[in-house]
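[Q] Does anyone have a clean structure-token version of this?
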Amino acid sequence: MKKVQYLLTAAFALAGATAVAQQDFSGPQFARYGETVEERAANIQASNFLAEAVKNKRYDEALPHLRQLVNDRPQASVNIFKYGKLIYRNKINRSKSRDEKYAYVDSLLMMYDMQAEYFGQGGRESAADILGNKAKEVLLYRSADREGIRNAFREAIAAADGQADPELVVIYYKNLCDDYQNDEVTADEVIAEYERLSPLFEGNAAAAESKQQFDAAFGLSGAASCENLERLFAAKLAAAPDDEAVLSQAVSLMSRAKCNSDFYFQVAEKYYEVKPSAETAMALAQVFQNEGDYDKAVKYLNEALAVETDPLEKEKLLVRIGIVELVANRIPAAAASVRQALDLNPENGLAYFVLAQCYASSAASCAGFAGQAAFWAAYDTMSKAVNYMSDEDESSYGNSARASLAAYRNRFPTSEECFFNELKEGDRYTVSCGTASGVATTVRSR
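[A] Here you go.
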């Protein structure tokens, strides 16, 4: 049966060759196949034979036609390279020696390079897409060539001109981190590539999962240790102590690594001098808060607040001040700050979270029923916190907020205590003690 099929195919091919020979290829539409009519006829015939052979999985028969087209008219059709990839993958899988396999891998990769050269502009696949697929083939077939893998992915990323496929970037960066752990590259290179590639994920909501994988690879690599970062940036800043870009990179990476050395404090403060901003002030505030230096933390936040004009940034700064003041147990100052934030945005869940704790903390200083009643205001405010929290705030503070609601309910007065104070369920009540003094709430019993 196979013999019959082969004879039929050969007959069709002969008929096709005869038909090709009888056509007139002098028109401009055939120019891509050659300079002369004879060249065009030969290459069109080779193209037909190539397509027919690949379609019938006769890869050995297809190979001479592929080579003819690649050598004579690679610009004739993108299908030359699509068929070429199928042929060489088959040859790789059937290779009988390592040298034979490597030779076919070279040929496969050449198909990608030539496709990118001749059809990477304006085709269905961009040069970046083609080279990205080539990089994956390098990873598959040349897994031991670590430098070759890195170079192939870098070439593809560079070809994308700032629009690289996030998944491709993650594959490259994970391999780079593996190379660092195997002493193939230095920590400086891993850190530099993290900074270079991070902006590719910005403003791309669809790349959120890839960004998490990218960040995780960096964090797990071990390259971003405080010791490595300090060594790297100490040398850079010794050469250029006021370089804003270097200072920014140092603060960003050392903050992420949760460094708390004197060197980090000096760099962060230096960067704030060079470029004061709300973002830097909040990073510094976190550092000094962690160190228990609340006065210095609030100092930077207030300095940033004094010059900030963006309402959204002012809101963030005010909430941050409230958090620091709350941790420092300066309850009136904490409440005053988050109330200003709520004036800017009455739906700021984190501001309500801080304010509720201020109400609850000050209730302890109120005697008897007045102190218990303050927990009504604390509960109401924490309920708003839960309702208005963003996804990010929920992940950080949600459990604490819900636990606080239960704790506040347990501090409500009993029904008997409400009765003796001539109050019943649902009555309006104005808190008369503590930070919540003057806040209107509703009577409820424990």
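[Q] Thanks! Anything notable?
[A] The first strand starts at residue 428 and ends at 430.
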